[in-house]
Amino acid sequence: MDYVAKEERYDNMIYRRCGRSGLKLPVLSLGLWHNFGSTGVYDNMRAMCRTAFDNGITHFDLANNYGPEYGSAEKNFGRILKDDLGVYRDEIIVSSKAGYDMWKGPYGDWGSRKYLIASLDQSLQRLGLDYVDIFYHHRMDPETPLEETMGALADIVRSGKALYAGISNYDGEHMIRAAEILEELHCPFVINQNRYSIFDRTIENNGLKAAVAREGKEKGLICFSPLAQGLLTNRYLNGIPEDSRIKKDGRFLKETALTEERLAQIRGLNEIAESRGQSLAQMALAWLFKDNVVTSVIIGASRPEQILDNLGMMKNMSFTAEELAAIDALS
Ligand SMILES: NC(=O)c1ccc[n+]([C@@H]2O[C@H](COP(=O)([O-])OP(=O)(O)OC[C@H]3O[C@@H](n4cnc5c(N)ncnc54)[C@H](OP(=O)(O)O)[C@@H]3O)[C@@H](O)[C@H]2O)c1
Predict the structure, then answer these.
(1) Is 292 exposed, middle or buried (0-12, 13-18, 19+ CB in 10 A)?
(2) Cα-Cα end-to-end distance for the chain
(3) Per residue in 123-164, pLDDT tens?
(4) What is the pTM of this model?
(5) Where are the domains of the chain?
(6) Each residue of 74-103: pLDDT tens digit?
(7) 222 lines ligand 1 (CB under 6 A)
(8) Which CATH superfamily is domain 15-230+285-317 in?
(9) Of all protein residues, whose CA lies closest to atom 28 belonging to ligand 1?
(10) How far apart are CA 55 and CA 44, in angstroms?
C-alpha cells in the first residue's frame, strides 16, 4: 500500500534555526551511517524512515561512503525516496558529504575540487535526486588549500546541486577561516557537523563550539554519535547483546570500549536518567541542548522503537545545576 505520512507529524517536534540562516532543523535528525548499507534489511530501513518522518524528523543525513559497501546507504535511501518519501521531497532535508576515502586513486579522498564535485554527482545519481539540501566537506584536509575546498562548495551551491554548504569535523580556527572564505564567495554556509556527547567533549576544547556561537556570526551545529554509538543507552548495561552494534558491526565501536571504568560511568549516568524519569538515551540527547548552542542531534538507530524512545527526550530537556555537575563528575 502507498505510504501516507501521518497528518499530525509536525505536532510534537521542535525545530531550531541553523545559526542566522533561514533553515530550520528538527532537534532530532536521522543518520544513515549504520544499518542502511547492503548488509541491512530493506524493510527495517524503510520502517525507520517512515517512523522518523511520521514524527517530524525531516532531516536524513548521509555521506558518499556510508554502507557497507560504500555508496549503498545512498542507494537504499534513494529507493526509500522512490517508494515512500519522495512525494514529500519539499518537506525533507537530505544531506550528503565527501571528504573521506571513497574510490581508488588520488581523486577519491580528502578535499580537492576534483573530488568534491565528482563525488556529489555520484551521490545524486545513487539518491535519484537533482539536488541535496546540504552538502558537507567531511573532514579537514591538511594539504589542499582551504580556498580550493571552499571554492568547490560555493560552486556546487551556485550550480544548484546543493542548497546549503556545511563542513564537518573542523576545529574552531579552521571553521572561522572557512566561514570567512565562504562569506566572501556569498555561499550560504549554515552548519557544522561534529561529534559531541556526554563522553566526547572535543568541541568544547578545540574552539568549535565557541566559534559557532560567536555573536552576530552564529552558525548551525549538528552533533553526531550523541549516544556514543550506543554506549550512552541501556544497550550494554547487562552484557553485549548479539544484535548490538559491537557484535554486528564492530568497525568503529569495539568491545574494548566497554572497560570496567566505562561501564561504571554508564551505570551511574543511567541512575541519574532514572531519577529524571528518562531513559539514558533520552537524557544523553537532551543534555546536548543544555546551553542553547546545538541546532540538532543526529541519532543512529537499528530499529524503529529506538527512534520512538529517543523522541521522548523532548519531554524533559532542562537540567538542574546539580544534575549537570553529577553528569560531569561521572564522565
Ligand atoms: N560527520 C561525520 O564524520 C560523522 C561520523 C559518524 C556519524 N555521523 C552521522 O551521525 C549519525 C549518528 O551516528 P551514530 O550512529 O554513531 O549515533 P548514536 O546515536 O550515537 O548511536 C546509534 C546507536 O545507538 C543505539 N541506540 C540508538 N537509540 C537507542 C535507544 N533508544 N536505546 C538503545 N540503544 C539505542 C543503536 O545501537 P544498536 O545498533 O546496538 O542497536 C544505534 O545504532 C550517523 O548515522 C551519521 O549520519 C557523522
Answers:
(1) exposed
(2) 47
(3) 999 999 999 999 999 999 999 999 999 999 999 999 999 999
(4) 0.98
(5) 15-230+285-317
(6) 999 999 999 999 999 999 999 999 999 999
(7) no
(8) NADP-dependent oxidoreductase domain (3.20.20.100)
(9) 306
(10) 17
